Amino acid sequence: MLITLDLNDAHPLHEQVAGAIRRAIGDGSYGQGDRLPPARDLAEALGINVNTVLRALRELRDEGLLEFRRGRGVSVASRADGHALLVQRTRELLEEARRYGYRRDDLIKILEALP
């Protein structure tokens, strides 16, 4: 898994890590049941604190995308699918809309007007 962080990005590092993992799941780089590298390895590769990576992993577990198993590490949940990518892209769309001065309700109206 190739994760890059943008230290100039206003988003917290744990959100960037979680977003990258969501995209990897959504685009099929990681499938159901696949194990992720240990948090320590990810943290070392990214040059960040292991607690930052753990926070991202817990967030994804709470979303139902990852499963934590004692002694077996972290793996992609059996029910994870393209939903992860859709959630991530929707978040990115909301952020882009905010940059242009649109609110969430405005974006919903735009989506509802699409054929």
From TrEMBL:
Keywords: DNA-binding, Pyridoxal phosphate, Transcription, Transcription regulation. The keyword DNA-binding applies. Residues 11-79 form the HTH gntR-type domain. Coiled coil: none annotated. It comes from the Bacteria. PANTHER family: HTH-TYPE TRANSCRIPTIONAL REGULATORY PROTEIN GABR (PTHR46577:SF1). This is GntR family transcriptional regulator.
